[in-house]
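Progress note, sequence design subtask.
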């Protein structure tokens, strides 16, 4: 094996060992993610345009505004490109993030000016283009409908009713109703897209193909002491607040309960 190739493999192994301590991926999964990164990076640096294409074609994130904002959430050093560490850490939160990690990731996406407060202008920008002509909405009515949606989002997310959606407001609202996690725009991959991508990374991909939030019902969110936080301002990504299990269960009630599964298997 060429010396250069051997050195590259050793470097990948070393980086993978470090990232396995900081993410929800094990060492082998980190190696696979790094090799995928290297193959993409050989075609050119992963800049904003290339990352938009990855999000669109692989992760089924299609909203034009969300593509740019999600790139910003991965590019934490704001140098205009995604490096291998940002690639693995960002995917760790996006694909396997626990409740509070996902909340903080999504809030960072929505918080365009980084002031830890969402104003109506930011919501309007994120939701722009979410309505298309048709289904009883004329083209000249789209802007008015979008403004109405912004007001609905403000009413749902501004818990203390001060006219701004602070991070604390967003956390409280998402604990009450997990469906509000992407209320301002779709910035997380679909379950199908996640499964398809993870299938080339790990053999355990089926454990992560359910709707995000399903594990919250079963109280599986665990605190981690060996993973450093990848989220803004260096705060811990794990919250000590209690989840409202009864209200969450109303939203994400399991489809295949033991009784339902028995009925399905015995039905003719």
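Output:
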């Amino acid at each position: 094996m060429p010396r250069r190739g051997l050195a590259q493999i050793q470097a990948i192994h070393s980086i993978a060992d470090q990232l396995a301590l900081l993410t929800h991926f094990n060492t082998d999964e980190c190696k696979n993610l790094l090799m995928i990164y290297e193959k993409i990076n050989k075609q050119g640096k992963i800049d904003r345009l290339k990352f938009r294409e990855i999000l669109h074609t692989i992760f089924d994130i299609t909203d034009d505004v969300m593509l740019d904002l999600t790139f910003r959430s991965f590019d934490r050093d704001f140098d205009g490109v995604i490096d291998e560490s940002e690639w693995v850490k960002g995917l760790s939160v996006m694909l396997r993030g626990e409740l509070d990690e996902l909340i903080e990731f999504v809030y960072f996406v929505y918080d365009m000016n980084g002031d830890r407060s969402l104003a109506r202008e930011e919501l309007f920008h994120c939701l722009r283009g979410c309505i298309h002509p048709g289904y009883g909405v004329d083209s000249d009515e789209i802007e008015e409908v979008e403004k109405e949606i912004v007001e609905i989002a403000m009413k749902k997310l501004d818990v203390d009713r001060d006219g701004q959606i602070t991070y604390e407001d967003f956390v409280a609202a998402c604990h009450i109703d997990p469906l509000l996690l992407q209320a301002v725009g779709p910035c997380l991959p679909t379950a199908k897209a996640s499964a398809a991508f993870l299938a080339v990374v790990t053999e355990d991909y089926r454990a992560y193909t359910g709707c995000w939030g399903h594990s919250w019902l079963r109280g599986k969110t665990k605190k981690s002491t060996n993973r450093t936080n990848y989220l803004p301002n260096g705060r811990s990504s794990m919250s000590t607040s209690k989840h409202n299990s009864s209200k969450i269960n109303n939203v994400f009630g399991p489809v295949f309960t033991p009784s339902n599964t028995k009925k399905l298997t015995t039905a003719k």
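Residues 213-268 have pLDDT under 50 and may be disordered. Work on this subtask will continue into the next period as scheduled.
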